[in-house]
Amino acid sequence: MTPVDAITRLQEAAGLLLDRARQVDGMRAKEGRLARQPNKAVFPPGLFRQTGRAFVPYVLEMQQGLQSLAEQAQQLSIRAVGARLDAFENQFTALNRAIRQHELTDATGPAIAPQLRAVVGRYRPLYDKLKEYKEYERRLDQKIRQLKNDRFMTMQHQAEILRQYQRLGRCRQAITELEERLEALEAAWRQ
After folding, report:
1. DSSP letter at 58?
2. Is 45 helix (H, G, I), strand (E, B) or coil?
3. What pLDDT sits at residue 166?
């Protein structure tokens, strides 16, 4: 898949995510949940510039960034486009997960909300571990970029880059396994 195809695919997915975000934000606004602590950030610092409890501004920020990347893609290296795409995919995953969690809460209604809180509380350590892995992945990616930008590329630098890539691969594998486990647990709970 070319970088332009990946950008287009992500833009299409972001469009669908925007529709879901508008629906969830509308329901949350009716219930008055958006009015409570309106400037509280939903996502960790560094993931988005945006702050607030509504999802639509986050999706719009991501769409604007994707549009900017699409316009600049021809002038950037494949590696630079790939790094920015990884950041957008992290944003998309975080938004999708948060919106899905609110959709699930809204669909179950107030009668099941205490049970849902109990289940989510039981799996909170897994979500915390996922957050920790994502942060480690971000730091590894940053370290690799720093090493690649070093002017004096020695054999030691190349070996260190290789070690960092291996760590990054293991980290991404652990993230995938943990996400699959969480999805299976959520699917089992829904049934």
Report:
1. H
2. strand
3. 92
